[in-house]
Design brief:
Order of helices and strands: EEHHHEEHH
Strand order of the largest sheet: 1-2
Distance between the termini: 64 Å
Helix content: 40-55%
């Protein structure tokens, strides 16, 4: 059946056939029955392996009601849920501020070190002054390491938060 069978042309415009989807008043076709040869012997059925039944549990009855309560508190943003979120944010902020302070102390102490010990500032390594190496190269691995450290601590805080909610 082609697409032209479903459409007709009216003034050069294709329109759907108005009889499309309606029952046609056609005479019923006669079914042609062909004789089927009877099988001489039955086909052997292959043996199917035994299927081990698996019990499916949709809800764990041992789950504590507190878990559900804590999730509802968080989803509905009640005062207790807000308190839990604030505690998580405080822990994340405390970690960030401590690591920020560590970076400031380490990087801020280098210029003071070179100012108060001028002989230390005149040391060269492979023809490059030590202050250039410590102030121009060393901060990048330091900041990368502190970033990884912060990421691990933040993920630990989040895991502890989720464990507290679920248990």
């Amino acid at each position: 059946m082609t697409s032209e069978d479903f459409y007709r042309r009216v003034n050069g415009v294709r329109e759907p056939d108005p009889t499309l989807g309606k029952k046609a008043n056609l005479p019923p076709e006669r079914a042609v029955v062909e004789p089927v040869a009877a099988p001489t012997e039955p086909m052997p059925q292959p043996e199917l392996p035994k299927i081990k039944r698996t019990r499916v549990i949709l809800a764990d009855p041992r789950q504590a009601a507190g878990t559900l309560r804590a999730r509802v508190e968080l989803e509905e943003q009640t005062s207790w849920g807000e308190l839990l979120i604030k505690d998580l944010v405080k822990a994340q902020l405390k970690t960030g501020m401590l690591l920020w302070g560590l970076v400031i102390v380490l990087l801020g102490s280098l210029p003071a070190l070179f100012y108060f010990l001028p002989a230390f500032g005149r040391v060269t390594i492979i023809g490059v002054p030590l202050p250039w190496l410590l102030l121009g190269v060393a901060p990048f691995p330091l900041l990368f390491g502190v970033g990884i450290w912060y990421n691990r601590l933040a993920e630990r805080h989040e895991r502890d938060f989720v464990d507290m909610i679920e248990n």
